[in-house]
Write a structure and sequence with these properties.
The chain is mainly alpha-helical. The protein has five helices and four strands, in the order H-H-E-E-H-H-E-H-E. The protein starts with a helix and ends with a strand. 20% of the residues are buried.
Length: 157
């Protein structure tokens, strides 16, 4: 029989130390953003083409001047972008562009899976950043990098 004192001093298996998070580099961030924007724009163009196509007497016409066509394009592009950056990221921890560039989104606090509400806030922040700050950075030729927002962080996989 094993004495009581030796049972309590038996070595417990040590948990592996967590791997440190690797920060996403600016070229990867930019590439992921460009891929996501291109896919959203393609979805918008497809919606515009679908709405703007008319067939009269066997002739197919695409009318891009109509307001319905522009509304469909904008709605589809924003809708795809929202789904890509919220639902897909909730399920896979990455959008289409981030999956292709080897990035993922994690919570800053514990590197866990991001929740839907912060992902929606991150998408709104990114949209605001794109509309307001990107043109300012281009015009002023500044080198300010986009920061992570709402308690979420972009890291390498």
């Amino acid at each position: 029989m094993i004495p009581q004192s030796s049972r309590t001093t038996a070595r417990q298996p040590s948990a592996a130390a967590p791997r440190p998070l690797r920060t996403a580099t600016p070229p990867r961030r930019l590439t992921a953003s460009a891929v996501d924007a291109a896919v959203a724009l393609l979805c918008g163009l497809a919606a515009a083409a679908a709405v703007g196509v008319t067939v009269a007497d066997g002739v197919v016409e695409v009318r891009v001047q109509s307001p319905a066509t522009w509304a469909a394009a904008l709605g589809a592009a924003l809708g795809f972008s929202l789904l890509n950056h919220t639902l897909l990221t909730r399920l896979t921890r990455a959008s289409v562009g981030k999956l292709l560039t080897g990035l993922r989104v994690v919570r800053t606090s514990d590197a866990g899976r991001p929740r839907l509400l912060p992902l929606t806030g991150r998408w709104l922040f990114g949209l605001y950043w794109m509309v307001v700050f990107v043109p300012l950075h281009v015009v002023t030729d500044s080198d300010v990098a986009q920061q992570d927002a709402v308690g979420l962080r972009l890291v390498r996989r």
